[in-house]
TrEMBL record:
GO terms for molecular function: steroid binding. Keywords: Lipid-binding, Steroid-binding. The keyword ATP-binding does not apply. This is Membrane-associated progesterone-binding protein 4. SMART domains: Cyt-b5. Signal peptide: none annotated. InterPro entries: Cyt_B5-like_heme/steroid-bd, Cyt_B5-like_heme/steroid_sf, MAPR/NEUFC/NENF-like. PANTHER family: MEMBRANE-ASSOCIATED PROGESTERONE RECEPTOR COMPONENT-RELATED, NEUFERRICIN. It comes from Forsythia ovata. The lineage of its organism: Eukaryota, Viridiplantae, Streptophyta, Embryophyta, Tracheophyta. The keyword Ribosomal protein does not apply. Residues 38-134 form the Cytochrome b5 heme-binding domain. Belongs to the cytochrome b5 family. MAPR subfamily.
Amino acid sequence: MRWSPFLGIPFCFALLSFLLFKIFPFNSPHNQPEHRLFTVEELALYNGSDPQLPILLGILGSVFDVTKGKSHYGAGGGYNHFAGRDASRAFVSGNFTGDGLTDSLRGLSSTEVKSIVEWRDFYSRTYILMGKLVGRYYDIEGNPTKYLKGAEAKAARGAQLLEKQKNEEAQVPSCNSRWSQDEGSEVWCDDGYPRLVQRPVEIALTGKMSKRCACFKEDELVQSGLEVYNGCDYFATKCRL
C-alpha cells in the first residue's frame, strides 16, 4: 500500500501552528496573567521608599501602578501620602494625616462617594491596574464585597440627584454675581429680582441644607420660601452684600 505525500500536509500544518502558538501566543485576556491580590502589609512595601520597587496606590480596593508619576507619588512628592495604601477617603476629605488616610467612607455624602468613584475611574484610564487589595472592598478570592457594591450604588444615587438638581435649577436662572476688594460682593438679575431660595436636593446630596441666589419675575415673588437679601429693596434688581 502506497502512502500519498499529501497525507503529511495536515500533520505539518498542525505542528507548525503549535510551534507558532508557543512562540507567539494569542493575545487573549484568558492568556494574560491574573491580577494579583495584595494584603495591606504587602501593598505598604510599594510606597516609593525603595527605588527598586514600583510605586503602587489603592483606591476602593483597586491597586494601580503609578510609577510613571514618581515625581508626584515617590518619596518627597506631593502625593506620596497615597502611595503604598488605600486612602480613598482622603481623595475628598483633604485630610492627609493620621486617621484621614483610610479607606473608610463612613459618613461621606453621595456626591463625595461619587467623586471617589470618579477618581478610581481616572486611575483606570491613566495607570495600569495591578490587582486588588484584600480587605474592605475585595474578599480573599478577589470578589467585590458588599462595601464596594454599596459605595458604587451610593455614587450612582449621587449622580442621579445631581442631575435632578441641575434640571430643577435650570427652570429658574441663577443670579449674576461678582466681588471686588473695593465694593465687596453683589448679586443682580438681568431679568427679574434676586432671591435666596433653598436647594432641597442638597440635603440628600451633602447632608446639609444650602441656598442659592435665583432670579424671579414679579408675578413669581408671591411664592413661599423666597428670601430677600438683608439690606436689599423688595424690587431691587441688584443687591450689594
